[in-house]
Amino acid sequence: MAGQMRFLRNKNLGFKTDQIVVIDTGGFGVGLSSEQRKKLLDVYRQKSFFYDELVSVTMSSMSFGRGNYWSTSFMYDEKPVTCRVYSVEYDYLKTLGIKLLQGRDFSRNFPGDAEHSILVNEKLVQFFGWENPIGKRIPVEGNNQLNGTIIGVVEDSHLRSMHYAIEPAVFHLKEANGYYRYIYAKIRSDNIPKTLELLKNTWSEVVPDRPYIYSFFDEDVDKVFREDERWVDVTQYAALLAIFIACLGAFGLISLTVAKRTKEVGIRKVLGASVPKIVILLTTEFSVFTLIANIPAWPIIYLIMNKWLQAFVYQVALTPVYFLAGSLITFIIVISTVGFQVLRTALANPVESLRYE
Questions:
Q1: Which pTM was predicted?
Q2: What is the pLDDT of residue 279?
């Protein structure tokens, strides 16, 4: 489980999260109106021209782990296809650091982009098998959400948690099958408190009667991962408790075994047996039992972990390394626990051992 979490943490999400403030304008029907959101974005952009603290500002219909993951479906080659539809504003790729692989980004120099152009992700291009999708249109009739000429291809981004696969996606410069909600402000790290105050004051200037709700993008992403990591933490603590209880049992068993064989130890020492040989003799039995216990444990753990991993679309492979490492750690802990008791008996005076009743 820890290996899976490390894998997810190190996986490229397809965008950057550092120094980005996410401002929530509210949900449908309860948040800002479309006019208020547009005006607010324009004011933030104007501020970015005069304040170096604001690098760039944009807006979209979704944010990682939350928001409106609108989709639309269509038939292609008699197969149903689901395509995500996202509403974004100018500078979306620039602000979030999403790579443009082909073509160009939305540009104010091309007024027609607002109504007639779309960006698509790699997944959509792969689905249709296009080598050069620039200038093409998605081959579907009667679906206004997918209308538009493709002007660019962006790198696949994990806009949801790793429990979901990346799907074909289309990006519009209009509220297509969704509505704008989240404002992204890329800021500098020089004076963050001052910049946050600037963002808050600007909000109050435009919509003084609405609460200002913001978060840091990297913290939003971290919260999504933490939901799964909590289960990992609980499991690790439970495993430590189980090992501790098992070691107590092993210590009790070895104490009883050593007590029964105290005279045998004394006789062996009198006859010339060394301390290491006696320790090996008395711990071999428990070593064998510990190793044998792994035989039924491996398939059970494999089934449990395989079922847990099914919740993730992107997952590590259940290689033998994890099982071997777990067995080795368990073996070392158990043998270290019982080895203390065995060593103490082996080092005892053989005369005292022979008198033991």
A1: 0.75
A2: 77
